[in-house]
């Protein structure tokens, strides 16, 4: 992030996010019958050490700055030109930004959730009517942020009543927020608190994430997967599943019930027919007649051989590429593959809840109908590797080693997931050799591998030499059909040469993140795109290289493999490519 743009990014994140309980752009809004009006007044602001009792009703803040609407940015050069729609304050080095505002909830008696919406740099503590209701990104002393925090808006539900918030008043409530910078920032990303804050409320439980499908499997009981969702209040849940394709006699509906109340739920479903089509609904119950429903949704399981198997691949959709990512998700929802493989960098920071809230909000129409299997990108592992475990848990991927590498068999096809964050770990290489040998013994009708940083690429990052040396020969020796990677935000297809043979590779990093310029001109295929100046010729190993937002539909049939790279509008990046049947 460039100097002085911390708060500018927060302002951009808050565009289209009206005050007063209306939905934030891109946020899951409460259903009309559950939304409760919240009227949030302007803010009083102060940069400096927190005065005594500043979070209480009786504190006199008339000497503070404001009233002002925010978002709040430090008056610190260089500022962007023109400046963002922000309220600027004089920075007090090493001190927090303090915000106070009054709000009313006319129908407070029926409020069950108060939702705090905050974009912040880099940690905050929030209080309502003198009670602490939320704390994010703070060190143990409560005086500084622990890590840099990005511009995504985090949604924090606060149950009403609860120990943190015993009650709400219809008028005269006080919201106080202390925002702290991470002291480890530098001259490129300065140490400065910045924030945007809003409120919303609901009269009952909502499904705020999902349902989304994950962890597809096949076994003796047939096909299986997981249905995941999150609610803003602890709730039990039930998945009702009905087979749609013609079977005789018709199968009765199945109900999978989770009786324990929780905000995060996972329903494991097995015994599904391979190649079957199902309709499912998720119902949650927070008690006292407070319920919510999502669906019906439609899912399909992967068919058994020799029926064609169809799946999708894409990658690199992190911030700030939400508009392009949303367009790709809408296209994939129309394509309706049974499973989607991702080449990594699903989010900007994998340890950050706000980033995941944004990812699942964008991918909702795709995630409800297709299981997603990710490879971990470098951004997914941030910060300092803590994001890897969180990412792996969200998608329920069975871990073979540390979070990041595994394999699965679907429809007679073997899929290998590699972690390039762990590419120097010899245990992963040893596992890969054994795993590929097993796939060959079991006569997989095709083998595909997925990773983030691939051995060959001709964009900003280029290929990874360690992958060339340690992994590409193992994949080539096992006759892997295609290695898919990301990291470079381009589309590239080629054939790499290793001591063990040749390996077809595809770089698919056009999932939404800003596109990179190709470094050379391929021997065929579409032009490289809007690239400044002439380009040198690519090596003959590169068949196609271009910058384009895209996804890839892959079909495995008895007579071969087809790769169809498509733009969000469905047009071809290049004509569908036919590969011979796996041997």
Note the topology.
Layout: H1 6-14, E1 35-36, E2 39-40, E3 43-47, E4 65-68, E5 72-74, E6 87-89, E7 97-104, E8 113-121, E9 123-128, E10 131-136, E11 154-159, E12 173-180, E13 194-202, E14 207-219, E15 222-243, E16 254-272, E17 277-287, E18 290-300, E19 309-314, H2 322-335, E20 339-342, H3 353-362, H4 364-367, E21 371-374, H5 378-381, H6 386-394, E22 406-410, E23 413-417, H7 426-441, E24 446-450, H8 465-477, E25 482-485, E26 491-498, E27 501-508, E28 542-546, E29 551-557, E30 560-566, E31 577-579
Parallel strand pairs: 5-6, 19-20, 20-21, 23-24, 24-25, 25-27
Antiparallel strand pairs: 1-13, 2-7, 3-4, 3-7, 7-12, 8-11, 8-13, 9-10, 9-12, 14-15, 15-16, 15-17, 17-18, 19-29, 22-23, 26-27, 26-28, 29-30, 30-31
Helix pairs in contact: 7-8
Question: Which CATH class of the largest domain is shown?
Answer: Alpha Beta
Q: What is the fold named in CATH at topology level of the largest domain? A: Purple Acid Phosphatase, chain A, domain 2
Indicate the structural class: mainly beta
Beta-strand proportion: 35-45%
Please state the overall shape, judged from the principal axes of the Cα atoms: globular
What's the number of extended β-strand segments?
31
Low-pLDDT regions: 1-5, 14-30
Proper CATH architecture of the largest domain: 4-Layer Sandwich
**Structural domain tally:** 3
Number of helices: 8
Helix residue percentage: 10-25%
**Quaternary structure annotation:** single chain
Computed over alpha carbons, the radius of gyration is: 25 Å
Taking all residues together, what is the mean pLDDT? 91
CATH homologous superfamily designation of the largest domain? Metallo-dependent phosphatases
Instruction: State the end-to-end distance.
Output: 48 Å
């Amino acid at each position: 992030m460039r100097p002085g743009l911390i708060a500018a990014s927060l302002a951009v994140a808050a565009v289209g996010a009206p005050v007063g309980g209306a939905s934030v752009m891109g946020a899951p809004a409460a259903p009309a019958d559950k939304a409760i009006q919240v009227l949030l007044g302007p803010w009083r602001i102060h940069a400096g050490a927190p005065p005594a009792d500043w979070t209480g009703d009786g504190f006199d803040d008339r000497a503070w700055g404001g009233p002002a609407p925010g978002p709040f940015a430090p008056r610190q050069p260089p500022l962007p030109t023109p400046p963002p729609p922000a309220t600027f304050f004089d920075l007090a080095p090493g001190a927090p930004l303090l915000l106070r505002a009054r709000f009313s909830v006319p129908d407070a008696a029926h409020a069950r959730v108060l939702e705090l919406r905050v974009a912040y740099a880099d940690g905050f503590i929030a209080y309502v009517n003198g009670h602490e209701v939320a704390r994010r990104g703070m060190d143990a002393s409560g005086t500084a942020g622990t890590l840099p925090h990005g511009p995504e808006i985090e949604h924090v539900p606060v149950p009403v009543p609860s120990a943190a918030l015993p009650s709400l008043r219809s008028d005269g409530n006080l919201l106080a927020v202390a925002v702290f910078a991470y002291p480890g920032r530098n001259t490129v990303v300065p140490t400065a608190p910045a924030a945007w804050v809003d409120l919303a409320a609901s009269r009952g439980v909502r499904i705020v994430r999902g349902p989304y499908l994950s962890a597809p499997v096949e076994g003796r009981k047939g096909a299986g997967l997981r249905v995941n969702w999150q609610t803003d209040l602890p709730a039990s849940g039930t998945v009702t599943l009905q087979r749609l394709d013609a079977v005789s006699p018709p199968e009765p509906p199945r109900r999978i019930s989770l009786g324990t109340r929780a905000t995060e739920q996972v329903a494991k479903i097995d015994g599904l027919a391979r190649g079957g089509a199902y309709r499912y609904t998720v119902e949650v119950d927070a008690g006292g007649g407070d319920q919510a429903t999502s669906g019906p949704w439609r899912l399909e399981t992967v068919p058994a051989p020799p029926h064609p198997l169809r799946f999708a691949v894409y990658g690199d959709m992190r911030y700030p590429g939400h508009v392009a990512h949303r367009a790709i998700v809408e296209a994939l929802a129309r394509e309706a593959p049974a499973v989607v493989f991702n080449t990594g960098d699903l989010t900007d920071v994998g340890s950050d809840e706000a980033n995941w809230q944004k990812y699942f909000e964008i991918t909702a129409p795709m995630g409800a109908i297709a299981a997603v299997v990710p490879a971990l990108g470098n951004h997914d592992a941030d910060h300092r590797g803590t994001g890897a475990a969180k990412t792996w848990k969200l998608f329920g991927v069975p871990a073979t080693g540390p979070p990041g590498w595994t394999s699965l068999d679907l429809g007679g096809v073997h899929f290998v997931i590699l972690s390039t964050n762990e590419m120097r770990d010899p245990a992963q290489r040893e596992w890969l050799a054994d795993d590929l040998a097993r796939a060959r013994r079991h006569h997989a009708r095709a083998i595909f591998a997925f990773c983030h940083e691939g051995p060959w690429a001709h964009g900003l990052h280029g290929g990874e030499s360690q992958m060339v040396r340690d992994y590409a020969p193992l994949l080539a020796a096992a006759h892997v059909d295609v290695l898919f990677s990301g990291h470079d935000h381009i589309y590239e297809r080629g054939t790499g040469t290793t001591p063990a043979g040749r390996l077809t590779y595809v770089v698919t990093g056009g999932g939404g993140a800003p596109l990179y310029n190709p470094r050379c001109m391929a021997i065929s295929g579409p032009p490289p795109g809007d690239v400044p100046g002439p380009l040198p010729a690519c090596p003959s190993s590169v068949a196609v290289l271009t910058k384009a937002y895209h996804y890839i539909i892959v079909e495995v049939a008895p007579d071969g493999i087809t790769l169809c790279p498509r733009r969000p509008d469905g047009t071809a990046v290049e004509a569908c490519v036919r590969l011979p049947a796996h041997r």
